[in-house]
Every structure is written in structure tokens, then in C-alpha cells.
Write a structure and sequence with these properties.
Length: 981
Amino acid sequence: MCGADRSGGIPRATYRLQLNRAFTLRDAAALVPYFAALGVSHLYCSPYMRARPGSSHGYDVVDHNSINPEIGTREDLEHFVAALRARGMGHILDWVPNHVGIGADNAWWMDVLENGQASIYAQFFDIAWENVDPALSGKVLVPVLGDHYGNILERGELVLRFDDQTGSFAVCYHEQRFPVDPREYPRILARALGHALAGSLGEEERADFSSLIAAFGRLPERCDPSPAAREERNRDKEVHKRRLVRLCGRSGLVLEAIVAAVHALTGTPGAPATFDALDELLETQPYRLAYWRVASDEINYRRFFDINDLAALRMENEAVFDATHLLVLSLIAEGKVDGLRIDHPDGLYDPAQYFARLQSRVHAMRRAVTAAAGPSAGERRSPDGSASARDLSVYLVVEKITARFEPLREDWLVHGTTGYRFANVMSAVMLDPGARSRLERIYRSFTGRVLEWGAVAHESKRLVLDTSLAAELNVLATELRGIARSVRSTRDFTRSSLKQALAEIIACFPVYRTYIAATISPEDRRYIDWAIARARRRESATDAAVFDFVRSILLGEGPGAAPRAADAARRFAMRFQQVTAPVTAKGIEDTALYRFGRLVALNEVGGEPDHFGTSVREFHGDSRHRARHWPHELLATSTHDTKRAEDVRARINVLSEIPGEWRRALDRWSRMNRPRRRVVDELPAPSPEDEYLLYQTLLGTFPLAAEDSSGDYVARIEAYMIKAVREAKLHSSWANVNGVYEEAVRQFTRDILEPRSNNVFLTDLETVARRIARGGLLSSLSQTLCKLTAPGVPDIYQGTELWDFSLVDPDNRRPVDYERRARLLREIGARLAHPGATMAYVRELLDSLTDGRAKLYVIWRVLQTRSRLEMLYTRGAYQGLRVRGPRSPSILAFMRRHDGSASITIAPRLYVRLLRDQAALPLGRDVWADTSIELPRGARTSMLKNVLDGAEVPIRETGGRRTLAAAEVLANFPVALLVTP
């Protein structure tokens, strides 16, 4: 929490690991010595609770309270923790509270499908049981079919089956299974009894069978809401199933009769009437099986974005919280998990409540664990002897995206975000903001389109509301219509007008969501008023009174004076908040960012492409704010969600420094590759926008070594382009694949990258890519150093300690060659073991810049410094330093100070300007001239040591100012970290 002192449990640096069946907890444990040597304090693990079989990411968790067997066992987790503890390290777990994977491997979901509203888990999921469509009233839509329901049914793809080991019936669709409501078993068993009687069933068995059929029929109905009825149904259905198992075991004739009845109900393809009985049985179920395309319009359970097999949990329900957090809380209380990264908090009904409850539970469980042993050495107590929940709370960071003007909520009991904002600020400060207009002209000239980011973002959000998330909008509109009807002054508002107003307000929303709960903050009021004002202007044909009504509801004021109306308004406002976030995510991250390609290094999660670049002053302001309010949040430059790895963005950013060269290259490449384009639907394929994206992508990722530009690289680029095309939703999409267009893009990509002797494009591309790569690699060193020394906890994404040119997932989840990284780190240690070896080694690193050792070296050196000066970086104040002289725009410098210790980070930027074509590394006085870094008053030391090259750096007195000469500080290495001796 901002302002709180929690340095005792703060990571020094984290390293993100992607666990899966190919990289398990045992594999991670074996690499702990490497990570310890690198200098990170915590391994930050992807979700390792039980997920779908074969999951590559772990976010499709199906059981929060067991370890994913593909990743390891509880013993493997203990072994992993022990390996960390042996080296004084900890670990952070990526935690998924918002949703679960649904299907046959989720017992809660299967119980809901079997019992509907009578399920003991019915309130665990966010299901709209009441629906304007009578066919869905009291049912949950299950959109899993590959074709229309009638076609699937009459082709015999829905098959009724009986499990004689559990006494249960289910309808199967290929590998998927859907349980039959036990109260409807008599429909099947009565037919079986007829078969059994024809087979001369004994009197005792006939009586037992008849009694059992009647017992199933007397189960409480699904619509009975009373707890007693739910308990009775849940208990008795299992009793009756066990009786049926025993009866089948005693009588082969009964089992044979049931099998015959099941077969008769299955139907015969080509004879539609034979499926009537199965259709009637399905109509009685608490679910409706449907074509998957129906989901976008009619799905009535909240999902994770638009993913049908990830259903949202009602985490605001305390019973749901308790049921899902048993294992993770015990791991935290036992000291086996040291922190949590909360996935998608914007999906939660009330995030602040969730964080407070989580911290409270951690506090309570830790007190229980330590009660017998007495207060731990690290536990601070108030004067009356009671421990503070804040002092004992777990390290908590949240995956929250904020707009440039949006502060993180200070009432959240968290340490900050996972670093998207820093990633964007850091990347943007490395480009030239003065190139905006030139790059815009180049983009418009090449694509023939005049695009404005705000319009693209708005159009993309409306598209999402009209397609993949239309059902969520329908649910909101229906609920709002019910509120309007409760008051005579708003009774005439139609569902259509309310839906249109809601759609426009959501599309105009300036942030991911508001956080209205018991109260409404001034910030939330401003965001709502801003969105409604914009929506009014766009939808001038809509009755102004409709917007006034929606505003009153969103502000929790209610349509009338009755308390019930105010409560309904508040509930609606809180549900509305859960819709704006996924619409923004799908509209911006997964649509608009793939449509607006002026400079795609800016098209990042949490980024705002229209904000072209960040000044050094803005960078300092952002860092000061973080040091003051959120000093322990993560600092990321690459994550598992970023659209491009940090090193890819750094290379693409170089285009802002050479817009003229970029324009000329585009002109050449367009002419060279014109014969390889196709025409699809009377339009070029790839489109100019897609071709423009492809060229930027190639410059950002082109292999540094010729031997790496193999078929694997071409396949990666090809797969990326298809994903980008589908996300943009202009020429193809995930829901409506345009195979002809996609094949044209694939073939174009393969053709232009084919390593044949007469491929002049590939030769030209390699030349331009090499020039851009040099500046990009040096910028990467600067952003790496800044991340490691700025206020916050630096986070390293797996594999990025060397150059990494990955693209969006799944490309960034490829296996990492840790053996090579560990070998290189050992070599660094061995080389520097000799006194005076540092200077020669850093020169060697610059001579072989492309092999990545320079980046690994910077990370290792700086993390060792962080370990030695831990309090400086955990609690140290931040101050941006003034740079003077002819190259002052090309240096970003800042100081950290705490209790007599200090460090100075000097990170050059806009390297292409500095390098020119002839400049050798490191850059000498002929480049830096009289450029100097001015030290603040109070910095009394006369000498500083550069931890990266080992040199001592004198402080100069110039005109009454204490300064550092850039040419001296950067005489041996492109970046510098100076510390007091």
C-alpha cells in the first residue's frame, strides 16, 4: 500500500518463468543456482494450479486447490521452494481469481449443468438465470457445437450414454460430456423398465426399479430456491445413483434394459423423427446446447473476455473466495509463496474488497501459524501488542492497465501494478517524438488511409460490442430496461434506445473501468461524465433524457427515491464496470493496436499510440510519482502479454530517428515485392496496412546472425502475420476466417523471405536491418539499465537476459535455452575473477555486441549492486539530473539516494544520431564533446565508481556546478551506473 513501509518482504528483482508440461517445477528447481547467480531474489511463476490438460499458459485453471499434475506434484513444489530457500530466494505466484476453465474437468461447472439453479455451485458463477428469451429462462447457454443444434442432433453427434459405475446419464458431444438432470432420469428409466418387463424381470427387481424411478422423480425441482431443497436434492440424487449402480450390479437384465433404452433415445441419422425423444430430453435440461456462434449474442454467463470456456467467478461472494483460496492461503501462511500477481483484477465485481479480504485472510492465517511459536522476529507490533494487518500483508501486484492520466487507486491494499505503464514510458522515451509528422505522412502515403487513433479505437470498441461481446451488452440493456420500468418517469424508455446509449457510452469510456462500490470517487464521476458527454455528441439522435437516466444510474443515484431503486442502480453500475474493461481490452489490445500501424513499437498493452514518444522530463515525473506512491511495483519491459519483446520495440523505435531512410526503403521494397502480391476480393493481398506491419516486424526481429534466418524464423513471422490479420478483423478474423486472404499473406511472407540468390529484397532488408539493429541493441542496454535502477522492482521475462526478438504469444512462450545462458554467466564470472580484467572484457562485449552477452553482463552487474545496496533501491529517493551541452537530448540521467548512499544512472538515447555511420563503440569525446551531467547540491563526494567498467569517475567543478563529463563516464561502455565508493 502506498506510503507503507514493507521493505522486509519486497523482492530485489523478479524473473518470470512460464511453467508447463515441457518446463516443470523440477526443471525450475534445477535452474535455481543460475537465477541466484544472476542476482534475482524471486522467481515469478506462471499459474501452476490445476489447469486444462495441455495448457501452455495455466490461465485456464479448473481447480484452484490442487497443483497441475503436468507441472508437478506437491512434493515437487516443496522441492522447488526448498531450492529457493537454500539460496535465500523466494517466489511469486501468478494468481487467477476472476475465472475458471469450464468443462468436464471442472466439477463445479458440471454440477451446475446437472442441477441448474439448484446446484450448490450455482452462485459461484456469474449466470443470468432470468432471461428475456423464454428458451433460456432458468438455463445456461452452452455454445460448444460446431454447427447448428438441429444439424448436430440429426447427424447423431449428440449421444446419450449411461455410466454403470456412477449410475449417471450424460449426453456426449465428441469428447465433451453434459450431465442429465437426475430429476429427468425417469424419462429414460421408464423406457428401460418397459424393456426389462418384456425380458421377464423378477418381481423384487421390478419393485426396486419402479421405486427408484419414483425416487428420482421426487427430487426437488431445480427452481426451488430454498437451502433445504437444494441440500435434499444434492444429497438424495447421489443416494439414488448409488442404488441404481447396485441394482445394475445385481441384475444384468436391468443394465441391459437401460442400455437398450439409451440406444433407442440416441436416434438414427437420416431419420429425423428418431431424434425427437432425445431432443425432448435435452429441452428439459438446465442448459441449452448451441452452435458456438450463438455465444456472441446470447451467452448468459460472464466470461473472461469472449472466451466461452473460461467462465467468470463471483469472487465477491465470500463462499467463493474461501472455496478457491484454501491452498494458496496455506502456501502463503507457511512461507512457501512470498507474493501474488493478481491476474485481470478489472474483471472482479469489487477489486478493493477482494484485495482487502485477501490481505485480511493472509494476516489471519499467519497469526494462526505463528501463534504457538510467538511473534516472529520480523513482526512489528503496535504499542498495545497487537500486530498490524498491513505489516503482515503479502506482497501483492495487480495486472492493471491505467491511462496516462489515471492514477492507481490508493485505497487498494496492493504494492502496485505489474509494470505495463513503465514498459510504455520506458520504450517511448527511447524514440524521437519530433518524427511524428514525418512518420504519419509516410504511413498515409503507403497505406492510402488517413487514420486518427481515437477514431480507430472507438470504431474497434463498437465492433466488439456489436460482435463478440454483444451478449454482455444485451444483458446490461435488459437489466437497465427493468430498472427504467420500475419508475413511471422512465417507463417509456425502450430497450433499443437504452442499448444504443450504453454502447456509445462504453465505446467512449476513457479508462478500462470505474470502481464504484459503497461510494463513488471524484475520478470515477469525471470518467462517467466525460464518456456520457462524448456519447451525447456522437448519438445526437438519441433522446437526451436517456443519457440523463443512464448517468443517474451509473452514478448510483437511482431512478427514484426508493431505497430499492438506489440499490438496483448501484448493482447495475457495478456490473457495468465489469463490461467496460473487456470491451476496452478486446477493442484496443486485440483490435485497434493491429489496425493502427504508424509506428508499432508504440502499439503495446497499456500503450496509447497517439501519444508519440515521452520526453525525458515526463520520464522523470513518472519515476518521481512511483517513488513517492508505489515504490515497490514491478517494472516490466517484456511480459507474457506484450505484443513485442523489449528488444523488438527498441529496434523499431530507431525508425523515428531515420524517417527518410525508412521512406526510401518502403518505396524500394514495395516495388520489389509488387509481383508477389495477389488480388483477393478485388483488393491487394496483403493489404497495404498488413504489408506495412510486416516490414516493421521484419526490421524488429530479423536475426542478428545469418545462420539464424532459417525456416523457423519464416514460420514464426508467417504465424504472427496470420494472428495480426485475424486480430485486426479487417480482412479475416478468428470468428470468420478468410482462408483465401490468409493464404495470400502466408505465400507473400514466404516468397519475400525465401533465401534464393536473386532475392534482392532479402539482401536489402538485411542491410537496413543491420543498421537499425545496432542502434536498437544499444537502446536496449539503456532501457535495461533504467529498469534495473529506477524506483520499483525490476522484472525480467524469461530468456530476455540475452537479446530476445519474440513477438506476441505464443511466440514469446517458446522454450528458453537456459544451458547457454548459464554457461555464458559462468564465463563472465570466470573472466572477471582476475583483477583489472573488467576494462578489457567490456571492450570485448562491444566487439561482439550481437551475441547478447553485453545485456547479460549489465543485468548481472547491476543486480549484484542492488544486492549490495538493497536499501538504496528499495527506499531511495529519485531525482532526475539535468544534462547540459550539445548532446544533452541524447542522455537520460537520474540519481537514487538513501542514508548516505547514492547511485547515478546514465543511459544514452537516440543512438543513431550519435553513431552516425562511422562512429565506433564506445562513443568518444568527438561525439559527446562538452556534454555534462549536473549533480544536485548536497552530493558532496568527489569521486564515483562505475560498476560497469570498474573505472573511477571524477566530479568536475564547472562554473560553481558539480558535473560529470559524459565523455569520461561513457568512455568504455555505452551505459553507466555510478555509485559512491
